[in-house]
Amino acid sequence: MTTARYPDLDGASVFITGGGSGIGAALTEGFLRQGARVAFIGRSDAAAFVDRMAQDTGNRPLFLQGDVTDNASLFAAMDKAAQTHGPITRLVNNAANDQRHDTLDVDEAFWRWAIDINLKAYLFACQHMIRALRDAGLPGHIVNFSSISYMMGNAGYAIYTAANAGITGLTRSLAREFGPDGIRVNALAPGWVLTEKQLDKWASPEALQAHLDRQCLKEHLTPADIVNPTLFLASDASRMMTGQTMAVDGGVVVSG
């Protein structure tokens, strides 16, 4: 897949949540190949992935093991990234969990867990970055990952879809509030991207065909399909875009 070059990403300090697996791993590689200084947080050990990226791209990412739902852990990782690579000027909030659930079986503990990882962590990562940028007088770009699942009104994971609707609302409000500081905030809403997790858990032949029937473009999405749109939103090529939600889904949902 051909990837455009964005000169302003060369040397940029980038922080990605959940950047060691799935879509996040593809994003980490994409930014590394732009010459960016990439740090990412994740719960699982990613040492082997870091070594592979260093070998494949000639650019070693900084892995910071931690939990995005714990503010102390998240902030410590972001501070370490800034100390190592310079102030974070590109934030990609990617970490999420679309665990299926029956609404009538949900209890408060599950609600808190789902909201913490799928919405709370987004707010506080943005807050921590924006504070640092304002203190330094620097502009910045934020890309918040949402999902078309809430636009489709999908059943089977109501808290996840609610959180993703919340992400787009959060994105619009932050864009309005911090635009005067030169901080852009956009959301990217992927369709059904066939990561290893999706293939293992939910991608039955019947489900895959039903979803493909909804798409205008008759190819399943892979993590690589999400990289170029993210690089665009994180670069100066989209410098007058903010507060927007961009769907990358093969043509399932439409806007306008």
TrEMBL record:
<dbReference type="InterPro" id="IPR036291">
    <property type="entry name" value="NAD(P)-bd_dom_sf"/>
</dbReference>
<protein>
    <submittedName>
        <fullName>SDR family NAD(P)-dependent oxidoreductase</fullName>
        <ecNumber>1.-.-.-</ecNumber>
    </submittedName>
</protein>
<dbReference type="InterPro" id="IPR002347">
    <property type="entry name" value="SDR_fam"/>
</dbReference>
<keyword id="KW-0560">Oxidoreductase</keyword>
<dbReference type="GO" id="GO:0016491">
    <property type="term" value="F:oxidoreductase activity"/>
</dbReference>
<dbReference type="Pfam" id="PF13561">
    <property type="entry name" value="adh_short_C2"/>
</dbReference>
<feature type="domain" description="Ketoreductase">
    <location>
        <begin position="12"/>
        <end position="205"/>
    </location>
</feature>
<comment type="similarity">
    <text>Belongs to the short-chain dehydrogenases/reductases (SDR) family.</text>
</comment>
<dbReference type="InterPro" id="IPR057326">
    <property type="entry name" value="KR_dom"/>
</dbReference>
